[in-house]
């Protein structure tokens, strides 16, 4: 059976572009978790593999971790549990210790009723809907049966202190400063607190650091409206250099500047890229195709090589390996580091931004100003009935532009541009646009909406 095409597959809705997820206890239960884990283990290798499991703060995560362990061990594999963990720490530990695969139990930025799995092969290479996940889906068999003896021994490990030592090593040389961090009651507060408590000259205002899988204080998605309100207020009240908010599993980071204003994630990534290029001249930097034109322009202006990529962590990580890239950025707030096995890491982003701001006599808002040369729409979600037909209509309407299909449809004119692509996680068309001035941007967005009007559903996505 296929993870995306087979109509009679009751689990097809669980397999997505970058992970496996659903409503815990309804769409995703422990039997399904065992079957998925068995299929994952058998896809990586037939028995005798080494796998590591971690889980986030969601209330359903521990039981799903047990089910994943049973499924893997039913295939003759060896399992190590590391317990409560951020996704970046699991990636790092799985790669450092050369496990054959890893499973992170998390639904990342989704509401508390959801849960799921991020699957990686060796060296933290993620499985995706393009490679790996369909093969796993094809091996899933329900009802689940134990058809061979389980591996009898379960191993336990706590890599936190070793991981903290690595993270602290990046934080050297930062001048005294005040920062604010909002962990959103996800998992990111644990390692962040322990890293910064060793540096008495760095004052950290900790917001929502206690893990609570019900996410009582804000959405685990820091990009949703209202999610940054408290950290913005904290930054302004206490005179912090900036504030940073994690998502639920701490692989994403969204920043507000010293005035409490949200920083567009692509512009922050461009600033970090130029920071890295000062110490790694000529390095390759990847940026996702939704980013402002200012990103490649800034990278190339300081001697770096800028390469556009598709959207999504699985594609970015593969492209980083292919191009031997030093760093990569996405509009969603994922930032990737070659020296962390090409993985995305919110804590590392916090550290690098602290170093960057510390080294300058300018505040963050001024450091970003050279990148703010274009008017940007951000990502707009439109509920479309026939997305394939809608993209074809857009391509016909803008046939005189420079066009490519790296990910969806990209239209490029000298004075403005846009990308439209089908979401891999929701039934929407995602549109992002930019122009040399706000008036042009608004005009062209109106024209795009008119082109899409015949295909648009009346209800907006939640």
Automatic annotation (TrEMBL):
Name of the molecule in the record: Phosphomannomutase
Q: Which CDD domains match?
A: PMM_PGM
Which species?
Answer: hydrothermal vent metagenome
Q: What is the lineage of its organism?
A: unclassified sequences, metagenomes, ecological metagenomes
Write out the entry's keywords from A to Z.
Isomerase, Magnesium, Metal-binding, Phosphoprotein
Q: Hey, which family's this protein in?
A: Belongs to the phosphohexose mutase family.
What InterPro entries has UniProt attached to this entry? A-D-PHexomutase_a/b/a-I, A-D-PHexomutase_a/b/a-I/II/III, A-D-PHexomutase_a/b/a-II, A-D-PHexomutase_a/b/a-III, A-D-PHexomutase_C_sf, Alpha-D-phosphohexomutase_SF
Q: Per the entry, which co-factors are needed?
A: Mg(2+)
Give every Alpha-D-phosphohexomutase alpha/beta/alpha domain span. 13-131, 163-260, 265-374
């Amino acid at each position: 059976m296929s993870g995306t095409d087979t109509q009679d597959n009751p689990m097809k809705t669980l397999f997505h572009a970058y992970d496996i997820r659903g409503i815990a206890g309804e769409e995703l239960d422990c039997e399904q978790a065992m079957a998925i884990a068995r299929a994952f283990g058998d896809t990586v290798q037939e028995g005798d593999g080494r796998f590591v499991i971690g889980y986030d703060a969601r209330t359903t995560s521990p039981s799903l971790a047990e089910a994943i362990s049973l499924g893997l061990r039913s295939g003759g594999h060896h399992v190590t549990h590391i317990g409560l963990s951020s996704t970046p720490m699991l990636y790092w530990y799985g790669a450092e210790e050369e496990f054959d695969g890893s499973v992170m139990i998390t639904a990342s930025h989704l509401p508390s009723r959801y849960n799921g799995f991020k699957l990686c092969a060796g060296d933290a290479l993620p499985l995706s809907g393009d490679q790996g996940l369909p093969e796993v889906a094809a091996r899933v068999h329900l009802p689940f049966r134990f058809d061979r003896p389980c591996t009898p021994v379960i191993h336990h490990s706590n890599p936190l202190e070793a991981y903290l030592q690595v993270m602290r090593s990046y934080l050297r040389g930062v001048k005294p400063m005040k920062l604010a961090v909002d962990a959103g009651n996800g998992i990111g507060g644990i390692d962040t607190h322990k890293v910064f408590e060793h540096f008495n000259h760095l004052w950290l205002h900790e917001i929502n650091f206690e893990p609570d899988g019900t996410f009582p204080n804000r959405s685990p998605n820091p990009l949703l409206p209202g999610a940054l309100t408290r950290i913005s207020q904290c930054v302004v009240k206490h005179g912090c250099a900036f504030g940073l908010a994690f998502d639920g599993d701490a692989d994403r980071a969204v920043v507000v500047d010293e005035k409490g204003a949200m920083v567009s994630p692509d512009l922050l990534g461009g600033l970090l890229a130029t920071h890295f290029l000062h110490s790694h001249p000529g390095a390759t930097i990847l940026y996702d195709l939704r980013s402002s034109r200012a990103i490649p322009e800034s990278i190339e202006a300081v001697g770096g090589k800028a390469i556009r990529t598709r959207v999504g962590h699985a594609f970015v990580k593969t492209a980083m390996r292919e191009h031997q890239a030093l760093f990569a950025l996405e509009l969603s707030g994922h930032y990737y580091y070659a020296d962390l096995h090409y993985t995305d890491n919110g804590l590392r982003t916090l550290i690098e931004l602290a170093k960057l701001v510390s080294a300058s006599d300018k505040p963050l808002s001024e450091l970003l100003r050279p990148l703010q040369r274009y008017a940007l729409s951000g990502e707009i979600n439109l509920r479309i009935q026939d997305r394939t037909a809608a993209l074809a209509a857009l391509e016909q309407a803008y046939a005189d532009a420079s066009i490519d299909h790296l990910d969806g449809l990209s239209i490029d004119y000298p004075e403005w541009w846009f990308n439209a692509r089908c979401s891999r996680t929701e039934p929407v068309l995602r549109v992002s646009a930019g122009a040399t001035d706000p008036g042009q941007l608004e005009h062209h967005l109106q024209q795009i909406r008119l082109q899409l009007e015949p295909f648009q559903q009346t209800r907006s996505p939640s």
